[in-house]
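ingest -> validate -> predict -> emit
validate: passed (alphabet ok, no gaps, 260 aa)
predict: started
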Amino acid sequence: MSSSVSLRDIVFALDAELRTIDIPDYGGALNGLQVANQGRVHRVAVAVDASRAAIAEAAVWGADLLLVHHGLFWSGAQPLVGVSYEKFRSLFGSDIAVYSSHLPLDLHPGLGNNAQLARALDLTPDGGFARYKSIDIGLTGAAHESTTALVHRVRAFSARYGGQVRTSLPTDDRITRRWAICTGGGASSETLREAREKGVDTLIVGEGPHHTTVEAIEHDLCVVYAGHYATETLGVQALGAWIASRFDLPWTFLHLPTGS
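emit:
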């Protein structure tokens, strides 16, 4: 049996590093420890979603802590029947704790999805973007390069995680001078309006509703839709590596692409 660490110690460290209590979020996110185990952690698995498949793979790998970006309670209170029952039965049966971090992980300056994606795309941020209540979820920065070249890098990244990329506008002859990133469901009327206000010409997101493409075309904004899942794989991996370094625990990334 490998060495173990107190679940309480790991949760305390995660809450402090991610500022879990301080960061506002949507009600269903329920950031922090969502399910406890018997109190010890030997192995850590990380995944984008707290899906039934992720829980099953975590159990097979022998994890007793599952770290996720999208937790178990997005739909609010619901009966523990069907799939919901199966998830909790598997968690309790394998003694797996679940810790979820949504916006706190999105905006973390080092481990966060947005910071990690900017780094993967060789983009240097100089400010915040995608304002939500008192926080900036995403990032923005200056550049001077072919938009086509930037989109090629986005495509190469997204493909590694099962994603597909589309753009609101053709990129031929376009130059990216100011970019912004908001991973996941980052395209909305609010983020497009903020992009215009901040002089952004290239907005990289995971996904967005149809109307955002129409708005982007009308305002000559190139929105790069890179896949919700793909753009949110890096944060949980960075968090897994952080825990491994801090607590000397083995960890693994459970790659379960959704195609979205």
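The first strand starts at residue 5 and ends at 6.
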